[in-house]
Specification:
Shape: globular
Radius of gyration: 12 Å
Largest sheet: 5 strands, mixed
Oligomer: single chain
CATH topology: Alpha-Beta Plaits
Helix content: 25-40%
Distance between the termini: 27 Å
Length: 95
């Protein structure tokens, strides 16, 4: 099974959303990363057991207390770049 690859759209930059995702992913034992995108969205890659991945999707849809999640997009067919890492980490903005 390929890693979970999501793009999160809404007020998700500058509100602690990446750190929220990192904390949830770590709590669930997932590997991967999260980063801001230049278009204002947040991208994440996560890998681990299906139940943990599903729980992360639910947490991302809820969002952090200061975030407003308008849409969660499942990315299909993209190659994870950079590769999935353990522990789950926050990356700098993508180009």
């Amino acid at each position: 099974m390929a890693p979970l690859h999501l793009r999160v759209i809404g007020r998700v930059q500058g509100v602690g959303f990446r750190w929220y995702v990192r904390a949830e992913a770590a709590r669930l034992g997932l590997a991967g990363w999260v980063r801001n995108r230049p278009d204002g969205s947040v991208e994440l890659i996560a890998d681990g057991p299906p139940e943990a991945r599903d729980a992360l999707v639910a947490a991302v849809r809820r969002g952090s207390p200061s975030a407003v999640v308008d849409h969660v997009e499942f990315v299909v067919g993209d190659v994870a770049d950079p590769p999935v890492t353990t522990p789950f980490r926050v990356l700098h903005r993508s180009s």
